[in-house]
Design goal:
Blueprint: E1 2-8, E2 20-28, E3 33-35, H1 36-40, H2 47-54, E4 58-60, H3 68-83, E5 92-96, H4 107-115, E6 121-125, H5 131-144, E7 151-158, H6 168-171, E8 176-185, E9 193-201, E10 208-209, H7 221-225, E11 232-233, H8 235-256, E12 266-269, H9 274-283, H10 295-298, H11 305-315, E13 324-331, E14 335-342
Parallel strand pairs: 5-6, 5-7, 12-13
Antiparallel strand pairs: 1-9, 2-8, 3-4, 7-8, 9-14, 10-11, 13-14
The structure holds oxa(dethia)-CoA.
């Protein structure tokens, strides 16, 4: 069954919701690089196939023992620095991740401890590749309602911990990385987050999943032998769903706010496959100049892709204060996320 929600952040008549802005953004990828050439030595694949079918050239991979909260910490510290906010001023932490440090305690707890956010509470959010868009929406509510003045929103994944480097259909796609933003109240005249539209469709579960390690199939010798603790994907089913849904949810969110796709300054999609992003952009009538693609350097970092793309857009001078930005994600679940905002940095 499909369910979706459309939310608004700007105060409506008679309501006292606060406007919310991104006050700081930072990202982190581990230094070790895994190239397409490296993968040619592990599985029956080629640089040409990977480049042509996905657009990916290389991805970053952690060293053994490095966990999601370690990447998240680096990004969080940078985001707080840019926002001019101390760890003690953070009231709420949400970490979108599919690869938590452990099932419990949460990565948010580990992160809170690592950064010394003594006044924060928080939790992990499981929405696969929509981890960042859903976490952004969740953090936004905490600031909009006045519950907290500053929220730390993280999208971080160590995908290399759940990738089967004997499976050529998945191991070429993913990488490790993290991004974080600090959300704060926006002044009357400041650019802010406009709204969101999200959707889930649980019938898509079998198309992209990790079968074992949860309550249905706890870890056993058998699950390990059958390699069930790794990502399994029906690539074509996910591909078709992603292209269709990106266009659909973009139109739904834009029309809710009386906007047209032609007014978008930058389309920041989840980075899974270059062909998915260009097909979606084409359907929305967006020229290349309004689309950021950086997956050639990182692969699919799941909850990390959108902040990594935002940071690269900033670094390339392609995002300026006031620009209309559309974020869209599609991932396992299925989950579909979209957030519309005016760039505030
Ligand atoms: O972020 C989470 C959401 N995930 C996604 O958005 C991923 C969506 N799906 C995709 O990006 C694409 O479907 C893939 C990149 C996963 C696959 O591309 P495709 O064009 O759909 O290829 P395919 O699965 O139809 O496979 C075509 C051929 C097959 O060979 P046969 O059956 O035609 O002989 C595969 O076995 O390519 C083969 N193949 C490979 N060959 C070389 C699959 N993986 C590889 C590989 N290297 N790594």
């Amino acid at each position: 069954m499909v369910s979706h929600a459309v939310g608004r952040v700007a105060p409506a008549e008679g309501q006292s919701l606060r406007r919310v802005k991104i006050a700081g953004l930072s990202t982190y990828v581990p230094p070790k690089v895994l190239t397409n050439d490296d993968l040619e030595k592990l599985v029956d694949t080629s640089n040409e196939w990977i480049l042509q079918r996905t657009g990916i050239k290389e991805r970053h991979i952690v060293d053994p023992g490095v966990a999601t909260s370690d990447l998240a910490k680096e990004a969080a510290v940078g985001a707080m620095r840019q926002a001019g906010v101390t760890p003690d001023e953070i009231g709420f932490i949400v970490v979108g991740t599919t690869t938590p440090d452990t099932i419990f305690p949460s990565t948010a707890c580990n992160l809170q401890h690592k950064i010394g956010a003594h006044n924060a509470w928080g939790f992990d959010l499981g929405a696969a590749c929509s981890g960042f868009t859903y976490a952004l929406t969740t953090g936004m509510q905490m600031v909009a309602t006045g519950a907290h003045d500053h929220a730390l929103v993280v999208g971080a994944d160590v995908m290399s911990s759940i990738i089967d480097y004997k499976d050529r259909t998945t191991c070429v796609l993913f990488g490790d990385g993290a991004g974080a933003v600090v959300l704060s109240p926006a002044a009357e005249d400041e650019p802010h987050i406009i709204g969101f539209s999200h959707e889930i469709d649980g019938s898509g579960g079998p198309a992209l999943q990790m079968p074992a390690g949860g309550s249905r199939m706890p870890a056993s010798h058998e699950t390990v032998e059958k390699r069930l603790h790794y990502v399994k994907q029906d690539g074509q089913a996910v591909f078709k769903f992603a292209v269709r849904k990106m266009e659909e949810i973009a139109h739904r969110l834009l029309s809710k706010h009386g906007l047209d796709a032609s007014e978008i300054d930058l389309f920041v999609s989840h980075q899974a496959n270059r062909r998915i992003i260009t097909a979606a952009a084409e359907r929305l009538g967006l020229p290349d100049s309004k689309v950021i693609i950086n997956l050639e350097m990182y692969g699919n970092t799941t909850a990390g892709t959108i902040p990594l793309a935002l940071a690269d857009a900033v670094a390339q001078g392609r995002l300026k204060r006031g620009d209309l930005v559309l974020l869209i994600s599609v991932g396992a679940g299925f989950t579909v996320g979209s957030v519309l905002l005016r760039w505030s940095l």
